[in-house]
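Complex 223.
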Amino acid sequence: MLQVSNIHKKYGKLEVLKGIDLTIGTGEVVSIVGASGAGKSTLLHILGTLDNADSGEVLFEGKNIAKYNATDLAKFRNRHIGFIFQFHNLLPEFTAVENVCLPGFLAGRPEKEVIERAKELLMMLNLSHRLDHKPSEMSGGEQQRTAVARALINSPEVIFADEPSGNLDSKNAQELHDIFFKLRDEFNQTFVIVTHNEQLASMADRTLVMKDGLIVQEVFSER
Ligand SMILES: Nc1ncnc2c1ncn2[C@@H]1O[C@H](COP(=O)(O)OP(=O)(O)OP(=O)(O)O)[C@@H](O)[C@H]1O
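Predicted structure with adenosine-5'-triphosphate bound:
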């Protein structure tokens, strides 16, 4: 589904990515680990079209999205890619349902269909009692599960997550991790997850270990 070859990235004189090659298949859960500063988030942002590589190629189902203009890229991202960050980035003035609906409305989908799907997703994520709550009226775990529903609203081919459980206690982290694998097992959802959480990394089908801008090790799970 995702093919990446020879990605290089510099910030000024700092060479952050030094030649990354990677292939990710549909339904795979891939974790990216490594010391702080190894280049994990930079790679994730490039894979997720949030940033450009200086050289190299990212093919998304065979399409070279680097060639898209800004409008087409935003459209592509909205329809095909979901994001989950360490901090949920929910809009404080909007309810859970409204937050989840937003990417659906941006995609121009019919309002009724989007609202129904948003409610369905929130209920699937055990948030049926929080549909009309604003983020400040929800716990950290509930906010992050709302962010998962938002990432899923347009049925993206892949979800990129950057430290998704970095801000959660161990119980809520475990619950979030279980949700990722449930989504993969039931809907063949693909995930690429940057994490410092060893438990999450070890659950992934494949773990990529990064060091100084390179993938230095690839560990396959026995799950
Ligand atoms: N926008 C930027 N401008 C300049 N330097 C940057 C920028 N983004 C990242 N860097 C630098 O690039 C290097 C890699 O950063 P990156 O965030 O990819 O690392 P990471 O492996 O995700 O680290 P962490 O685990 O701490 O999040 C770091 O030295 C960082 O300071």
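The pocket of adenosine-5'-triphosphate is lined by residues 11, 14, 16, 34, 36-42 (CB under 6 Å).
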